[in-house]
Amino acid sequence: MNVNLPHDLPAVEVSDILAREKAYSQDLQRSGKWRHIWRIAGRYANISIFDVSDNEELHRLLSGLPLFKFMEIEVMPLLRHPSAVRDDDR
Amino acid sequence: MNVNLPHDLPAVEVSDILAREKAYSQDLQRSGKWRHIWRIAGRYANISIFDVSDNEELHRLLSGLPLFKFMEIEVMPLLRHPSAVRDDDR
Amino acid sequence: MNVNLPHDLPAVEVSDILAREKAYSQDLQRSGKWRHIWRIAGRYANISIFDVSDNEELHRLLSGLPLFKFMEIEVMPLLRHPSAVRDDDR
Amino acid sequence: MNVNLPHDLPAVEVSDILAREKAYSQDLQRSGKWRHIWRIAGRYANISIFDVSDNEELHRLLSGLPLFKFMEIEVMPLLRHPSAVRDDDR
Amino acid sequence: MNVNLPHDLPAVEVSDILAREKAYSQDLQRSGKWRHIWRIAGRYANISIFDVSDNEELHRLLSGLPLFKFMEIEVMPLLRHPSAVRDDDR
Amino acid sequence: MNVNLPHDLPAVEVSDILAREKAYSQDLQRSGKWRHIWRIAGRYANISIFDVSDNEELHRLLSGLPLFKFMEIEVMPLLRHPSAVRDDDR
Amino acid sequence: MNVNLPHDLPAVEVSDILAREKAYSQDLQRSGKWRHIWRIAGRYANISIFDVSDNEELHRLLSGLPLFKFMEIEVMPLLRHPSAVRDDDR
Amino acid sequence: MNVNLPHDLPAVEVSDILAREKAYSQDLQRSGKWRHIWRIAGRYANISIFDVSDNEELHRLLSGLPLFKFMEIEVMPLLRHPSAVRDDDR
Amino acid sequence: MNVNLPHDLPAVEVSDILAREKAYSQDLQRSGKWRHIWRIAGRYANISIFDVSDNEELHRLLSGLPLFKFMEIEVMPLLRHPSAVRDDDR
Amino acid sequence: MNVNLPHDLPAVEVSDILAREKAYSQDLQRSGKWRHIWRIAGRYANISIFDVSDNEELHRLLSGLPLFKFMEIEVMPLLRHPSAVRDDDR
């Protein structure tokens, strides 16, 4: 997930949208739907792992992101690896 | 990590290398260095998260993979995201 | 799904693998898991739509393809479009 | 079909164009010309299958889309696959 | 249409396949199905215009090329341009 | 030749430039310099074949296009194909 | 690190941000964190080598750059090469 | 060297900058530093050969171009070819 | 022009083909058809300028290269630049 | 600099070529021509900085590498950055 904020967006609008984004993300993390999130060094971007029941739910979560219209998102479908040992890497 | 096995590799050599790859990966997972691994749907490839002290250690682990010479690996440097809530997403 | 058959594969092996591929594909189509398949004009490739319960099932179906090791597959996660009118475009 | 709406388009203009787009798409779906449509998870984009008599008709349908000037469209020419079992995958 | 002949193909096989390719192409040109063909300077490749009734026919013509398995083909769907003045640019 | 009109260009300016573009193109087609033109399905783009004496003339024709500053043009140098049967595919 | 300054940024703002960028970079170079920096000929871009304890520190340094929001940065994780002879190429 | 002039740049500013660009280029050509320049057919771009003592000098010449901030430049390091026969292809 | 020699080509065949390539190139340079040639630093590749009457002649020269079947060639159509001062940069 | 060793190269030939490569690289490092070298984590590749008098010398050093014919090398022309503080970042 890359974020591209237009450089002429008013500062007030930016801080508001970022606050809502953070709350939204943390709610989903606490619910277990958004299982992992990491920052990519040197970029305004992240790598996230979602645990959803289907693509319908995934899209509803992603398109609900306050920053969605400024994001470029690539979804990679993952599954449990046959060599995985941790129970929750599913 | 993508794997490209030459199609003319003898079957015995293939099964031997895959067995060693699996043991190697599971040892590192149990030690906590290889924190997560997922299969990418439809491809002979995986997405993995490593928890290492520096690039030196990361390269030693990766270049020690029995499948290393058949792999195409891209490393993306990650760090804790400011919105992360799980203690171990570091 | 692109297919790249090595040009030095014996003709007998080729016709055998293609026969098994066709039977495998048609069984899955009849079961409803492999909902659609189209040939791409001018290429040895197809566009297919799968209707599976999760990524685990999708990968099991794809990696079971007799031609799997000669294929380059890209999976695009789809869902029902809000403007869709047909019941089975899900 | 990817959609890129300029972020400074007035909200009224956006909701008007989206309503016209939906009506246009559903009319064509009901006529059978626009056979399938799916949303791509995490993106403002879709995958669609058209059943038209020639490229002339296809272009007339696509260039008539209310969102056409904000879209990036790639057309892939498809045909019936020799292994297809459904009568209407043509 | 790019052609990639393996450099270890026997010379006899090469000259035979090229002769059949030329005959096949010229038959289709005379029938009017293969309307135009140009060589691209400096490459073993061509740009061709086909005049076919549908994608089914196009694929049958292309996959029948003696060089088909050594070719990389990209099909671009064309139609009459609204500014065209020549009757046969359709 | 792809055309990218800025979405904020006044409608009057757009219709004026398009009328001049059409007249310019048709004059060149009638003179035989612009031998063929086709629309690419689903895109605001065309494929054209020019018959000019050298690159100097080609550039003069292209840079004289009223839409030139909004276009992205790729020139591919063509010549008569050894298998061509039509006299004017040169 | 590529820099893309919007061409309509006021000249005063530009010279201010460039002065702060230079001071920031030179402080880090003197501290030893920013070990090397070279200009890429013909481009407004540089190649830099950082010597940091982890990705966390690297991202803090990079995201603190006054030009950060106008930059496109790609981080490549490096380590000591087994053939290196200089002590400080680590 | 590609040139991308913003389409909303005032006409006076454009003609001024182009006049200065031409004078700058011709001075360097006469001095022998800018050995060759060709227009690329159909594009607002050129291919140039510079004969400079080092990268420092090359960058000084390029970044001094009046159009520099509107250009995308790729530098390819060249040297005398072992098969060259002309004395000044160095 | 990039050259890719298969690594299993016999050494005798390699030296023979390289000798013929050099002679062929130097004959064309002396005739004035092959106006310039430079080596690209660090690659088995060159940048060349040809001065030919049309694409037909260019292709005949290029496809006659002894190394032609091992080369990847990209032709860029050039013309005299309006700012050029040297008579022979045409 | 990426290295691609064919997987069917005899082990004896591989160890011999790697030994010669290491000696060659270390001689150049000691002479000051090959100023820096780093391994890229997870890949059989390196990033190197050369300090040479011109492209001629650079190409002679690179094409003399025992692994040269198995390498893919990209040269980026660098120069002293105006913000550099270290004397030897030139």
TrEMBL record, chains A, B, C, D, E, F, G, H, I, J:
Gene Ontology molecular function: any one: muconolactone delta-isomerase activity
Catalytic activity: (S)-muconolactone = (4,5-dihydro-5-oxofuran-2-yl)-acetate
Domain of life: Bacteria
This protein's pathway: Aromatic compound metabolism; beta-ketoadipate pathway; 5-oxo-4,5-dihydro-2-furylacetate from catechol: step 3/3
Any GO BP annotation: beta-ketoadipate pathway
Keyword Isomerase appears in the UniProt entry: yes
Subunit structure: Homodecamer.
Record protein name field: Muconolactone Delta-isomerase
Organism: Rhizobium rhizoryzae
Source species taxonomy: Bacteria, Pseudomonadati, Pseudomonadota, Alphaproteobacteria, Hyphomicrobiales
